[in-house]
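User: Can you predict the 3D structure for this chain?
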Amino acid sequence: MVKDDRYLSPRHARITWKESDGGGLYLRDLGSVNGVFMRLPTKPAQGSSPGPGAHEAVLRDQDLILIGQQVIRFEVVKDAEEGLGPAVEHGTMVFGTPAGPRYARLCQRTVEGVTRDVYHLRKAETVLGRESGDIVFTEDPFLSRRHAAVRADVAKRTFSLVDFGSSNGTFLQVRGEVALRTGDEFRVGQQLFRVVVG
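Assistant: Here is the predicted structure, written as structure tokens:
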């Protein structure tokens, strides 16, 4: 029990041991307000290109990402939002900044529980960081210079979250129940836990 963490719900998460499939630990969010976040795997993903230490996970619509002090909701853009095409008034095309394709968006969630900034993803890879990247959070000391990226496979409409070997890690909110292995790290409230099995 952690009494001093006001970001923890009264019943936040549960870890259970299951004998099925050879036994193992499992983590589940118990409907907490702020969720449970798993650090991206420590094993590099196959075919990852950012170099040594790259870690990757599949992103799904409405997933919450935690990097540094930023809580960001990932949203896939629906067909109706992809763009209306050029506007025309009285038979004349409206002059303006060309609109590129939008595949998804990242919505920054504030402590007030509302969305502050919205970043549309238009490229195959969108880099997030403190000093360098497409989306930069200069005032977050817990972010690495180039921290993570969201990758899009436009043809397949699939997305992934990639960590560039950041100092403090990239976390993805747990959905349902997840298996825990030695070395896994997860966050509940402001607490970071490392799993040691056996």
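Residues 183 and 195 are 5 Å apart (CA to CA). DSSP finds no helices and 18 strands in the chain.
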